[in-house]
Amino acid sequence: MKIVALAGGVGGAKFVDGLSRVIPSEDLTIIVNTGDDFNLFGLRICPDLDTVCYTLAGLANPETGWGRENETWSALETAASLGGPNWFHIGDRDLGLHLERTRRIALGQSLSEIVSDFCTTWKIAPTVLPMTDGIVPTLVETKDYGILGFQDYFVRLRCAPVVTGFKFQNIEYCTPALGVLSALQSADVVIFAPSNPWVSIGPILAVPGISEVLRSKTVVAISPIINGKTVRGPAAKMYAELGITPSALAVAEHYREFLSGFVLDRLDSEDAKIIARWGIIVLETDSIMSNVADRQRLAREVTVLCRKIIGGSLPA
Amino acid sequence: MKIVALAGGVGGAKFVDGLSRVIPSEDLTIIVNTGDDFNLFGLRICPDLDTVCYTLAGLANPETGWGRENETWSALETAASLGGPNWFHIGDRDLGLHLERTRRIALGQSLSEIVSDFCTTWKIAPTVLPMTDGIVPTLVETKDYGILGFQDYFVRLRCAPVVTGFKFQNIEYCTPALGVLSALQSADVVIFAPSNPWVSIGPILAVPGISEVLRSKTVVAISPIINGKTVRGPAAKMYAELGITPSALAVAEHYREFLSGFVLDRLDSEDAKIIARWGIIVLETDSIMSNVADRQRLAREVTVLCRKIIGGSLPA
After folding, report:
1. pTM confidence score
2. Predicted complex ipTM
3. What structural domains and CATH numbers belong to chain A?
4. Closest Cα in chain B to A96
5. A interface mutation test: which of B74, B90, B104 has the most A CBs within 10 A?
6. What is the dihedral of CA A134, A140, A145, A146, to 10 degrees?
7. d(CA A138, CA A202)
8. Are B232 and B155 in contact (CB under 8 A)?
9. Do B127 and B20 meet the contact criterion of CB atoms below 8 Å apart?
């Protein structure tokens, strides 16, 4: 069973790490959001890609979910002492990655080639692809702060501004990274990781060509919202600010046109009933991933669901 | 007595640190070579400026003369592990400076404004000016390696290639940084620090307008060559490769059109006699700077010489 997972953010990274532990690497491709990429100090920074790669490589900081374990902060502290911004926390090891990525981009390498090389170095076995090699910054439209760059909203302002909408700048002109469409076309199932539907999965779906392929595919999504809340991140807050009650149901509604299956927490069994009535196969389970065993268990359950759906052997 | 010192490299940095300890800060302006500036990882790196500033700020690594004390190397090690170059040794703290400088340049600040701000942060009292805010890379023409960027020659290839000449790219189109010409015009004495005449002082003299002002000024130079050798760096090797016997005499010859005074080591008293015959006031002293006391003593002796020259009270 060939699986393509769409992912972004810490929850997405944890889930695809689980997947990488339960299915053969050659059967797994991970397409990562790059809408939250940005430039700081002249360096190209790709937070979602790096979180996914650090997690898969076993290098991630288990406390924060982002950045690297055993990190030091000398460079950023020095820059800050000279008047530089320090709201985006870049550790020294993390910085080394940004330096080398930036150097290679200046030499003309594509982001996807670079990610591929880094994955080889880090012995990451599944295929990890950025959604595009283009520059498609996610902009957050807010009530009181105007239009913000994503990291400005997400990290500097800690998601405090009230959101009124999103724009994926230039996304209509970008193309999927090499390998993205072919991986999707040959996938048996596409899984939307428990990532933010607005700003992690949303940008991937907005890359020209991706949604078109997905409409002919078996898609299973995992709700990042549990009992109206998120484990981390602003997805629930965004739904509320956009006038939608945050819930697993809202997530299923969000993705409805694509879905064959949907995974939500046991706490959301009322939502499960409604979604099932739409003809979507629903799995209720424990969806919080507190440790590696949780990631692995959730991933295994999701793959079992996927097999049932594509095998036509549906749960009762 | 208003002094302007031209400097580049570790020897130059040590000497101007000595000067800063023996004359009032408001009377000292240091003009630093920027011909060895380059880009790595997309960052603007200014080795001579940084060596001068780190030395004046008391942040320099006393072992190496360049870079910072108590440095860590996480970022460069990570970049290298991903295939990046690590021949130019950038520590994490040093990197923080490059990050912030690069960020400010992208915002439109001039290098001289940035240096001024950093000097304020570091409580560096003398005025430190880059020779120009322009980009004027020193190229090293070599017998067997073609034309090399300066750091490529100096650091990566450890000065091994045989030099056939130098080119200061675009220097004819650059202008001195704001404050450079006015500092030179109001100087009582201009001192050429014991820096490499070819690639540290040479680029400064090649900035349009600087040599013209210097011809009407009292100039005192300190030989970086002692008994045919340099304490560090390739100045002596360069003279030899260009067909000139490396010596204090060769340095005096190099600068002859500008010189009122010349400082050399006691080991070079034969050279001293010849230079004195040209009508240049010569000071023989111990010119190796092994510690801060040496820097201070040498600087004091040089300032005494300067005073004698401009006061007309010449040594016998």
Report:
1. 0.93
2. 0.91
3. 3-65+98-137+171-311 (3.40.50.10680)
4. B75
5. B74
6. 70
7. 10
8. no
9. no
